[in-house]
Design a protein that fits this description.
alpha/beta, Beta-galactosidase, binds zinc ion, globular, Jelly Rolls, hydrolase, TIM Barrel, Class_I_gatase-like, Rossmann fold, GH, eight-stranded antiparallel β-sheet, 758 residues, eight-stranded parallel β-sheet
């Protein structure tokens, strides 16, 4: 008998079983030696249609035909049909299948044709329609196969349990504090005297603060409050000195950002002198061996503990005493105690209790089905598992919540200093960006224009229209903090910041007069003065571009994929102004773009996949590598390929694994965006009465006078005037745009701007 015919017989058998009951029932039975195989589809965990669990048994033998017997029970107690089915396959073809129906010890016997060679028998359970609420368990007992009068029990180990991979229950809502929009922060240029007492820097060094503000266009200052600078050895300085500094800053019209933190109380004296770690050892971030993090001399504090309230009160007292305009929280993150995965934090008692509470609140009774543990055993795992991955996710919630607590009680802009492009999951900063007034990060370790542009693209995607502040790497961190980088490097640190419309954060290092620095200082000053003198080229800008890269922190966290895909940096000089979408803002941001490139986005929630599917059905184009969404949002393997499912339901999907080919495809689908023939990176923005094109020269050599490039049509309709602005020349210069080509453009050293006015 061929398989097709067998399948027809099988369907007939099923129908008979369900309707007429004329199958051969096994009359004997009993309870003596039953081994049980259980399939579970957990409750409150929406599963995708097609999701399936199965167990196959190898029954190869020279004998053909045979008799299959089993008993089956399922726990389904409702009237809904057609959501979950279970059945048996022989040699891969369905022999028997039925809907869940609260079967109790139902006995089934099927005789297989005598001429049929049988190699494999598979039992399975499968989701037919998307379900979200009810859970079902299906138990097979006495599954046996008889040939030539010899019966063989197939399930030999008792209580073997398989769980249908459902989705995670909905996330517990995080505290939402509306973001405060402050005009000054949107246009801030920030100066930070650091590494020395502010009083010394601002009163005793040359040039004086007033001149720095004028030369560099400074509008805000970031200060470490008294008496924390005492760690630099300035014992004799008084609080009054600090108040004098504040007065001087106010006189100059500067907004004041005060430095604080949760993890080390903003270098506060109680942390700095070790009192806190002695008095409250239970407040320290600890790895799984109980070891704390001691970077900067003392133990880092954990926001799950009383340290949160303590540092909040400390920060509130700063706001009350010194009347600032914003708070910056340094290193708002967990870390590893030893710089390896073994030292990842935090396993403190509070984190362990809070994590257990989170699991129970989010999963209800279904936690056991998901993580195969009892309630008593819910704890932060020491080794990789699904529960460990859930903990990785939860660590991000801890910092987002901590930031929300601060912002609820401090009626000022609050933002954190985070390393948002960090190489792995250790820091747990992914969820806090939407809970702060600005996104801020240090770029001291960034080398070169390509790396900075890639970081700024990511930063803008994360900031999602809020101010992105870039701490510029203008000084030689690893040589001497007061020595500036060579002019080429220092110039690019500023140019990339300006071109991506990030707010410059300038360190005092090397800005004070110093014989070794004049050329670099002049480059920095020229670029920043240009920004100050041409404010309108930086105000109310909306980035233009229809193609975006999807940045996936989940794929970094669970699959170790680079956060910035390789093709993104490769495209900086292609003429296409690529934009970015942060995975956690897909919902609000994807609609702006028509082409989305997803390189190694291995982890994606079904919710986000649904959003992408809807976007595809409205004309979007997805270019993805073949590993797209093979895992869910906490890195659990999917039983159904989302990419295949999306391909079958919604439009324009291109699967390509080669990075160069991915770049070519993006250029093809977004060709109306491409500035052809440009030797520089172009970042275009829509502004009040037209467009501005920010240009960054990535080369060490200046671009010479007389160069040209083509401007896409969409920028040129109704444009009356094209002007070229350069930091090196005082006057702007009018350009001609003949048949879409801007030509005779003056030279570009690091950076320039072209304005297209209506
Ligand atoms: Zn902790």
């Amino acid at each position: 008998m061929n398989y097709r015919l067998l399948f027809a017989v099988a369907i007939f058998s099923t129908a008979s079983f369900l309707n007429a009951g004329n199958l051969h029932w096994r009359s004997e039975g009993g309870t003596s030696d039953g081994k049980t195989l259980t399939f579970i589809s957990p409750g409150r965990t929406p599963a995708e249609p097609g999701a399936e669990v199965s167990k196959a048994f190898d029954v190869s033998s020279p004998v053909s035909g045979g008799i299959l017997r089993w008993r089956v029970s399922d726990s389904f107690d409702g009237g809904t049909c057609g959501y979950i089915v279970y059945g048996i396959k022989v040699n891969g073809d369905t022999l028997w299948q039925m809907d869940v129906c609260k079967a109790v010890n139902r006995e089934v016997k099927i005789t297989l044709p005598k001429d049929m060679q049988i190699s494999e028998i598979t039992v399975y359970a499968k989701i037919k329609k998307r379900i979200s609420n009810f859970g079902v368990s299906i138990s097979w007992q006495y599954l046996s196969f008889e040939q030539n009068g010899k019966e063989k029990t197939l399930v030999t180990s008792d209580y073997t349990k398989f769980v249908i991979q459902g989705e995670l229950p909905p996330e517990i809502e995080l505290k939402q504090i509306p973001v405060r929009k402050e005009q000054w922060l949107e246009n801030a240029v920030i100066f930070q005297p650091w590494g020395k007492y502010e009083y010394q820097i601002l009163y005793k060094e040359n040039p004086p603060l007033e001149q720095i503000c004028r030369d560099y266009g400074i509008t805000a200052i970031a200060l470490q409050p008294w008496p924390n600078f005492q760690r630099y050895g300035y014992k004799g300085v008084t609080e009054q000195d600090f108040i004098d500094v504040l007065k001087e800053c106010r006189r100059l019209g500067l907004k004041i950002i005060l430095y604080s933190s949760i993890m080390h109380q903003g270098h506060g004296p109680q942390w700095q002198n070790g009192i806190l770690e002695k008095k409250h050892p239970e407040w320290s971030q600890r790895d799984k061996y109980g070891k704390p993090i001691t970077h900067y001399g003392h133990e880092w504090l954990c926001p799950s503990t009383g340290a949160l309230e303590y540092t909040l009160e400390y920060t509130k007292s700063l706001v009350e005493s010194y009347e600032c305009d914003a708070i910056m929280l340094d290193n708002n993150e967990f870390l590893s105690s030893d710089g390896t995965g073994e030292g990842v934090t935090c396993y403190c008692d509070s984190c362990r209790a809070d994590f257990k509470d989170y699991v129970l609140r989010r999963f209800g009774d279904s936690f056991g089905d998901h993580f195969k543990i009892t309630k008593e055993d819910i704890d932060i795992p020491g080794v990789k598992s699904d529960l460990y991955n859930l903990w990785i996710h939860w660590r991000n919630i801890v910092w987002a919540d901590a930031l929300a607590v601060f912002r609820e009680q401090i009626a000022l802009p609050v933002f954190a200093n985070t390393q948002y492009r960090y190489k792995n999951f250790w820091l747990a900063t992914d969820l806090q960006y939407e809970h702060e007034e600005a996104v801020f990060s240090e770029s001291g370790s960034v080398t070169g224009p390509a790396e900075l542009s890639a970081k700024m693209l990511l930063g803008n995607a994360i900031a999602d229209d809020k101010p992105l502040i870039n701490y510029m790497g203008t000084f030689q961190k690893h040589v001497s903090p007061v020595v500036l980088r060579p002019p080429f490097e220092a110039g690019h640190a500023v140019a990339g910041t300006l071109a991506y419309n990030a707010k410059p954060w300038l360190l005092w290092h090397g800005i004070a007069e110093n014989e070794s620095n004049p050329a670099s200082r002049e480059v920095i000053r020229t670029l920043m003065k240009f920004r100050a003198d041409n404010e309108l080229l930086f105000r109310q800008l909306q980035p233009v571009g229809t193609a975006a890269v999807l940045f996936s922190p989940q794929s970094r966290n669970y699959s170790g994929k680079p956060l910035i895909p390789s093709f993104a940096a490769d495209m900086q000089l292609s003429g296409l102004p690529l934009q970015g979408v942060w995975q956690h803002s897909i919902e609000s941001r994807l609609g702006r773009y028509r082409v989305l490139a997803a390189q190694n986005v291995t982890c994606l929630s079904s919710h986000h996949a649904d959003i992408i599917s809807d976007w595809l059905s409205e004309g979007g184009v997805l270019i993805a590598t073949s590993d797209f969404a093979v895992y869910d949002e906490i890195g659990r393997a999917r039983s159904v390929s989302l990419l295949d499912k999306m391909k079958s339901t919604a439009g324009n999907i291109h699967v390509v694994d080669d990075a160069a080919e991915m770049g070519r495809l993006i250029l093809r689908f977004a060709d109306e965006d491409v500035f052809s023939g440009s030797p520089v990176e172009i970042r275009p923005y829509e502004c009040r009465n037209g467009f501005v094109l920010h240009l960054v020269n990535h080369s060490q050599k200046p671009i010479k006078d007389g160069w040209s490039f083509e401007v896409p049509k969409k920028y040129l309709s109704n444009i009356k005037k094209c002007e070229f602005f350069s930091p090196e020349t005082k006057e702007e210069l009018e350009l001609s745009a003949d048949s879409g080509r801007l030509s005779n453009i003056p030279g570009v050293k690091f950076y320039a701007v072209i304005k297209l006015s209506k």
